[in-house]
Structures
1.
Amino acid sequence: MKEIDYLAPSSLGEAYAALQNGKTSAFLAGGTDIIVQLREGRKEVDQLIDVKHIPELVSYAWTDDGGLVIGASVPFAEIYEDDEIVRRLPCVIDCATLVGGIQIQSRACFGGNIGNSGPAADTVPALIALGATLTLGSADGARDLPLEDFFTGPGQNVLGPGELIITVNIPPQPANSGSFFHRFIPRNEMDIAVVNVGARIDLDAGGERIEGARISVGAVAPVPLFVAAAGDALVGETPTEDSFARAADIAAEAATPITDMRGSIAQRVHLTRVLTYRALDRALERAREA
Amino acid sequence: MTTTEKPDYKVIGTRPIRPDGVEKVTGKALYGADIHLPDLVQGAVLRSPHAHARILSIDTSAAEAMPGVLAVVTHSDLPVVADKVLDMGEGASTASDMSKNVLAADKALYRGHAVAGVAATNVHDALTAIEAIKVEYEVLPPVLNVQDAMRDDAPLLDASRHTRTPTGEESENASNVAAHNRFEGGDVEAAFADADIVVEREFDTKMVHQGYIEPHNGTANWNSDGTLTVWTSTQGAFAVRGALAELLQLPVSRIRVIPMEIGGGFGGKIGVYLEPVAALLSRKCGRPVQLTMDRTDVFQATGPTSGGHMRGKIAVKDGKITAAEVSLAFEAGAFPGSPVMAGAMCMLSPYEVENFKVDAYDVVVNKPKVAAYRAPGAPNASFCVEQLIDELARETGADPLQFRLSNSAREGTRMITGVAHPRIGQEETVQAAQASDHYQSPIEGPNRGRGVAGGFWFNAGMQSSVVASVNPDGTVNLIEGSTDIGGTRAALAMQLAETLGIEYDSVRPTVVDTDSVGHNDVTGGSRTAYASGQAVYEAGLDIQQQMVARAAQLWECEAEDVEYADGGLRHTSDSEKTMTFAELAGKQMETGGPLQGRGSVVARSPGAAFGVHVVDVEVDPDTGKVDILRYTIAQDVGTAVHPAYVEGQMQGGVVQGIGWALNEEYYYGEDGRMENASFLDYRMPTSLDLPMIDTIIVEVPNPGHPFGVRGVGEVPIVPPLAAIANAVHDATGHRFTELPISPRRVVEELHNLQ
């Protein structure tokens, strides 16, 4: 590992200026991915830009209409220790409590997990299921985009050279809706998802018919997948074993995984079906409790 | 559970605090990487990116010219050494193979094989410099498993290697099979023809690593007077000294090896990797040089244990095992020396088997040269045999433990080596497992199953040497040379205290360097509490005898009139004349000077260890995940010197066995690259993957040890692989003959996904 400059801008303006100083940069948010990548020589940059000192990135707030805007660098521990988030968005807690151990969670953050853009990132299917968007900022201004449109390949995304993630925006959730995220790992801890799935189910007022559903699957393609067709197939259906199984089949058909040391193609396609079904089942439980 | 009357020990059987405990939990203990010397410089090692390649040339000139670079070494800096066998205690190698493993000669034989070393003023300069070394490789196709390696058209790792056959001859054609050995007895064919039931299956296991938490390190200072001092993390300071003397062609007396605290070894810290390279670099640059590995280096370039292919066939008649035919082929890695012979000799030893034919093949492949790993060879071989026995018990309708008991070896039963068992505790151990609360409780619920398996390990004896110095206040310093990987400082201090009849706290044990005590073989083979314990006992007797003579001198009587008892001296006929140990210790100057006891042994009666394991699992049929619900281990330990450490050894062996059974494997790409060389993807169990492991200590004293001690550290890793496979079979109806029984393998098998 060669010598690297460390910058800690205290405003977005300073951060944008640092991004334009002609050097190659990486962001240091939680640092739980980038430091390992630099030490193992998997990445080389001239400077690290610490984004834990920019006010917009380290705070979070509810919007008037019931949405939640989370600064990209807010540590997971801060999120899952907030009782109101625990109560209103349990699916966010599903993933926030899963990334790393307790020490890691006191630094690691949504912006880092998303910016690292791993196909198996554990926060992403949960946030896609919730319909989250990102706000990206640069010296030229800000832009919003749906989270599922952010990723372009393993470790790759649409961030421009002078751009950074400012916030993750979770829109207000429909009434009678429930969401759930889980993953499969071979051990009970300290592992990367073989497959992970986030699902949301929106029921009608009577709680009998499905009005909408969002299903997202990770670790089965170069980018986390938003399988719109699987959710759409549930619209108008009643939540039954059959309708869930059909949606799970559609999710499995969308999977185009590889075989590697973490799992085989056949195993991942099979698990996509199993985990999608189970996620829908748990999301339904939460929708009925809502 | 004790089967014979145990003497009324005062110290043995208690659970005192270990002497190294406080330093370790407060972070003050010094490990190899904590050594900081004046003028110390750091080094780095260039490693082969190819699994199999001819090295056509190495150009170090650019690296040598870089700022901060002090020395560069390659294989050509090592002296030429003969093909002399180096017995490292657990596993032997030739000096020339070891030399080629330390720094590759004409060929790189595995990815990660060291090719050159650099010393520089800081580690960053060293890392930059190794990238400037130009190596021209001719890349060759790698051989990555025993079946491929044994094919007639397989690429050869060494074109001059021929197979040493059972008759001691060399095969005509060159081969990757370094050795083929055979054990044969009785009439196998007739027994199979006459059998009620015969089962036959093939089994495969993968290469696995010990996974000790502390990476390898080596710091060397080649002094201007030609002496060499080495600080390292090792299970055997004397083995390191012997290997360095051979590899560097130095007299043994010129090398001093200082063993640092060791963060786990399990057999993997006996050989040398970094030490000779650091020594060469130090000689070249005249400064002490430190080399350390990262985790990837540890996985790719140290000594894991073999994977392999096995075929087994066992026959039963009237409930008795009548014949076994087993063929084992184990990966040795890049150079010969797999533990296949140990596996062959262990796997049938818990049982009485009259007719047998066992073939053992030692096969080189393009993977790191294997090292010892806790009962090396036995877990793999038992994975084969104990599953076949499970199947036979089921087919005969017998309870699997009762079936094992009916076929158990006992005193006098001959192993396949022809050696008869002395007094052993195999039957008592099976009975203890049968009587356990676990085995007596039913297993209920869907997708759940129970499995059992047995295991055997020889245990080793070998050489130990200690000195005990009596202090004027009645305390004793115990100077020993067995590096402590499993609580042996406590276990040895306890045995000395027991021998002398003094308090445990009065004995202070210290592991010293190779200049400071007589020769000690490695801490391996579960030998230290047993063999060094015997040396300690002899040192205690030596002190007793000297004290008796000195008391006689003070009392002006004959030595025969004085006896040593209950931690003191007394006149056999004059009850007025008594002295405590401490009182006599205070009179050393007037009775002949400093009092030292010595003990030196070649321990020859280690007393084998047997274990029987019971495990309950639950299998998620949709994800293929196996959860361990309950685990009980019964083991004959002879005499438990420190029961808490004995239990810890039993539990530790089980934990490593669970990892090996369920998830651990070297996962190779076709190019011969290990793709999971990190603790993230090489999945050892975490605490959340394990239940409490219940232990049942069985004590059938070893008649070959003054306190009845048997080695305990290795046999607990032998049964888990098969026990878990048997439990998964019970839960799912599917027999898993290939390791690991990972979620991937289970789900693919249960859902026929291939």
2.
Amino acid sequence: MMKELNILIMAALLGLALSGCKSTPPKEVCETPNTKKLESAFSTSKNTLSNRQCWNTFEMQFDELLNIAEGAPGKENKKKFRDFLRWSEQKGIVSQLQYKKMYTEYFTPLYVSLPRNESSCRAGQNVTQITRNMDNELVNKKRGLLNALGDTQAYSKAVTDRQNIALVLLAAGEACNVMN
Amino acid sequence: MKLKYLILATTLSLTASNIVNAQGQSQTAPTINLFPSTVIQDLKNSVRATNDMEKGMEPIIKQMDETMVLFKSANCDGEAGDSGCSQLKKQMQQQYLDLLTQMEGVLPSVEKSIKATNKSLAKSITTKIGKSKTPVQIQREILAGKKPLEEKLVAGKPGKLSTKFRKLLAIASSKGQSGSTVVTAASFFLETKQSLSLIEQTRAAIAQAKTQAALDLSLGTLSDEMINTVSSVKSILGDESGEVGIASDAPLIPSALESDTSFDESEDIY
């Protein structure tokens, strides 16, 4: 009798454990776009991300969308990505800050990696690290601005601005050292 | 050869045209004035000092050129016993010594004026950028300077120092100061810093060359160093035939972009 009871308890526990696993859907449920058509790819991603349980695939979706856009560059892609990111923000998949950061980082010449709250005197002492961060960001700008949008002007603006910003920060650091 | 390098490097490091190249005249309202009257005054002094240097050196260079032409046309190369050739050789050596002495004499005033410009720019940059702007704000300033240059100037192009300073002075004095003025000021500040160090090295090298020149004069020989130095000095004075083989050593100042990138989605930008 006791033996049967134990089996029942174990079976119940196993059942509970298995039902807990159901909160993570099978991998194939969170589909990523598998097409070369960007429009349709955005639809797939939106459809997938409409399932709250697939929100953790957001970055993967974004990356895949970029890959597809890189295969068919065009300035019109900018609006598509903006709409997608805005949609993701409105759905609560990403925060407003994340949305703006991603959009700026990939699709504008502006650098989000620059320090926002420290003086240039201070930043000037850390130019190497700041430049490194800008270089990393430039890799994403290349994917977004150049490869996905084909916007060579904006991309070269980003490249030039990176040099100019580094130059000004270096000068600020040196000048502040002289005056202190 | 070391002296030649230093003189050339000094020249190139002072190429204000590099900086001018980074300047974009914007139609937007001025936001930062990095060239207050003190900087303008120091720039004026630099124009004067470099102008004086050029004016003082030009006649000696001209004399040397003439003597050299005479020396070559008289087939004096390798003529050891010819008294006329010996006379010409001595004349050239003396002119070379004069050139070094002249250069040695004017460099301190050039150095002084550049030092003053460097200091006033340091003060201006510290106050108006270093302490009061964040890197993000600098980025916005730079972004504002998006109009093309009215007068394109080639980066690293050799030319008269005084002309380069004069061009920079014109930019600094212009009312259309824009975001890229920040880049101009920053570049120029860094260049003056480097130049001061090079001038110091050049002065030391000239002292050495003078010793060698005095020795050459007593021995009656013409050294390659002399020919090279004269060529280098010519390049300072704006003779574009002077070698500029170390142009790649000059700091790289990116040129202003002519593109007018629009940002209609400002509310979406971080």
